[in-house]
Amino acid sequence: MFKNNPALLQLRSGMQATVSSNKTIVEGEIRGTRQGYGFLQADDGQSYFVSPPQMSKCLPGDRVKASILKQEDGKTEAIIESITEGLSGTFIGTVRHRGANPCVVPENQFIKNWFRIPTLKRDKERDGDIVIANIIGHPFDDGVAKCEIVEIVCNERDKNAAWKSACARYSIDFEAPVFDLDDVPANSSKAQEDPTLQDLRRVPFVTIDGEYTRDIDDALHAVRFKDGRIRLTVAIADAERFIIPGSKTDLDAFSRGFSTYLPGLSIPMLPKVMSEQGASLMEGEERHAIFCTMDFNNEGEVTHSAFTLGSMCSHAKLSYESVQDFLGGKEDAISTAHHHSIKTLNELCTRRGLWREKHALVSSGYSDYRFVVEDFVVKSVGMTAQTRSQKLVEECMVAANIEFGAYMNKHSLPCVYRRHDGVKEEKAEDLVEVLKHNGIATTAEELGTLEGFKAVMRQIETKGSEPLNLVVRGYMARGRHDTEFGAHFSIGLEGYATFTSPIRKYSDLINHRSMKNHLIQAGNVIEITEATIEHLDKRMSDTDRAERDVYNALYAKMYEPLVGKTFPAKVVGVLGAGARVEMEETGASGFISTRTLGRRADVFDVSADGHTLMKNGTALITLGETMDVVIEFVDVPGRSINCAPNPAR
Fold first, then answer.
1. How far apart are CA 312 and CA 54, in angstroms?
2. In this predicted model, what pLDDT tens digit does every residue of 337-346 receive, in sequence order?
3. Which helix (H) or strand (E) covers residue 120, if one does?
């Protein structure tokens, strides 16, 4: 009955004028939360609350103008006035129907909007289809977010959905590259008659790899001399001879960056006719290779090394399992023709391990969990530990790569180096304090040097402190590619470059081109741009993240029917918001939120030594401890497992 009341209209007009004259306008970027509300991160550094109704008018990532409403209790709220730069581009989501309208629900849980597919843009989409969609309408315009489907990846019910969606998420081709005969150099299939090339076909090289591996990059041969010297020759497949620079095959390999290895699925960087046949060091087949020959003294130090080109032939395809059996005393596990070489390689592994412990940094061996997958169906999952036979191959490859990096640097040759900067610069002071509380004295300046970093890591190793190792990992930078020779902190070396996997890594393929160009004095220009380095870093990150996403998706499906069940788990991380755990039986990652550990008024923080989650000043959960956890909730779309400590704990 008050509609159009003159007095009320006059009062409202006066109020609006007052608000308009007093309101503050800010610009910034919208950030979302899984709970539906958001925040406006203003350009002046301030952060303002955005309510769910206001969030429905915008998208996380939008740049907006907003008025800041100050409430009576002193809190502020951002009211969206306009979109200055709307979120655009493609996203991944799942088709769902809202009534008769097909929509795409983004898998990004910070975006709560459902994107409607306009009538003219609808085609063959089905409910549950996982799709790549393009934003074509912003919700600020008419309250409805709109999109069009660019590609249907798969359906969520498909047995390979976890694999296909992970590849789509990181723009990884799901299929192997197609072989194009026109891309292959004319002289690639036959050895060039060049007297400068070494003919090592009679040398009894062997390959040691997985039983079913076909893309074989490397072969080994070792001999021990009477004076104790060990000579190791590492043969690396000359995959580069099959690829014309700038060809479709070359550009596709560059785009992929790396072969992708997912549970039960490998997607090669090169066409299989190259990676598993023509370039692969298959048993009994003549192949071209780059040879790295190294002499080691009794202390495991390289006293001489050389790089040459030539031909070779693998005399046997050995598996990690057969070599491990032989080293364990089963003499007939491999042919007697290779006994001396394998025993010598084993002795070299010991020498080299001791050298790295003294002069560099070496891990005690890895353990990991692996899914056994057949035709995208999980058969089992369990822990695998690094075997002596795997360690043997690793030491040979690391030695060859160290010498390669040193050679390329000495001769000022174009090279893609591997770098690791140690502790993140912005976190160094924080880590110094954590180390101090663990009885290790250092400074940020010392941590920033290779020798200072190695000294700290050796002290941690001496203490045998697994929790402290876990803490330090959280302060570490990511490894990266670089065109400059420089320190690789995590393995304790002044410089490092890889060339041992040219079939699987484009960075190694580049390094092969540069080394061959130098050895044969071809005079070709090998240019490695900053854009190339950035691309390689991104593709390496993408393949790692895709593998992690598939694992997490499989774990989520595995534990979804086990909600309420109790499992033993190991604490692998503590932070203010909770604790990360790893299921002991399967390796699945879970998270214990502080919301399950107390009331809103409780104060949670991490102890000064970084080891323990504290509740109101009392130790609650400690790194490295084993505890029983209850599966509380499994978010299958989000690929996450939420846990709570067993109440009986």
1. 68
2. 999 999 999 9
3. none
